[in-house]
């Protein structure tokens, strides 16, 4: 009986603590899809094809409010721009992968998979990089899909006292706080968050708060960095 590569098992094990945060987040995504009028099958298909928590939730709400397609697509692109940076950072470690392996890796790329894999590669030089990455990324993908399906099936039947609406912001706060390592990143986070709240308070439609806040946050971070913000 074939055994799984040890690095794959290590990846699943290292990602396991993050699964606890992914479950309520996925439930929220499933519930939101059904609440906005998608069928269970559409919700499942959407989650499988898009597989991007933050932009997935934003797109679902925008589609539910009949936002123009350009706004829906633009929001998803802006929210996921960080994946370009992740890809550029991790690409040197994937240079020797076959084209099919690179395709699989690109589809499974998430914040958590990037962070855990890069840390492992820098710490353990003898790691089977693809096996470890798939262990992390596929386990996260599987948990997300199961949680999303459960949310779509249960729909509005989930008890409101569970407070699942807080799952998404809490998950991203957990990822955000450790990333605020210097003045530039801190300025970007503070300005982006402040602008997002201001745009929402102003009543601007179609979740333009995401796009405007992202642009403002990046601009603030670049400005501070140009004046020695890494000190």
TrEMBL record:
Alphabetic keyword roster: Cell membrane, Membrane, Transmembrane, Transmembrane helix, Transport
Recorded topology in the membrane: Multi-pass membrane protein
InterPro entries found in the cross-reference section: Brnchd-chn_aa_trnsp_permease
Localization (cell): Cell membrane
GO cellular component, one term: plasma membrane
Gene Ontology biological process: L-valine transmembrane transport
Transmembrane parts of this sequence: 15-34, 41-63, 69-94, 130-156, 162-180, 187-204, 210-228
Top-level taxon of origin: Archaea
Family (UniProt): Belongs to the AzlC family.
Protein name, as recorded: Branched-chain amino acids ABC transporter permease,azaleucine resistance protein
Organism: Haloferax elongans ATCC BAA-1513
């Amino acid at each position: 009986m074939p055994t799984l590569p040890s690095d794959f098992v290590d990846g699943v094990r290292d990602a396991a603590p993050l699964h606890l945060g992914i479950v309520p987040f996925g439930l929220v995504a499933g519930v939101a899809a059904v609440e906005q009028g998608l069928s269970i099958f559409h919700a499942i298909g959407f989650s499988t094809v898009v597989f991007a928590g933050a932009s997935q939730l934003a797109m679902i709400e925008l589609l539910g409010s009949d936002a123009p397609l350009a706004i829906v697509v633009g929001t998803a692109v802006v929210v996921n721009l960080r994946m370009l940076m992740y890809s550029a950072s991790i690409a040197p470690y994937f240079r020797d992968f076959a084209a099919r392996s690179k395709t699989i890796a690109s589809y499974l790329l998430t914040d958590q998979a990037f962070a855990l894999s890069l840390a492992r590669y820098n710490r353990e030089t003898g790691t089977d990089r693809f096996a470890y990455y798939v262990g992390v990324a596929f386990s996260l993908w599987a948990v997300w899909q199961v949680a999303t399906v459960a949310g779509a099936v249960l729909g509005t039947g989930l008890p409101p006292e569970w407070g699942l609406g807080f799952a998404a912001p809490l998950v991203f706060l957990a990822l955000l706080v450790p990333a605020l390592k210097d003045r530039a990143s801190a300025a970007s986070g503070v300005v982006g968050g402040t602008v997002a709240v201001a745009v929402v308070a102003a009543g601007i439609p179609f979740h333009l708060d995401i796009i405007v806040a992202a642009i403002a946050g990046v601009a603030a971070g670049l400005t501070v960095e140009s004046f020695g913000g890494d000190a």
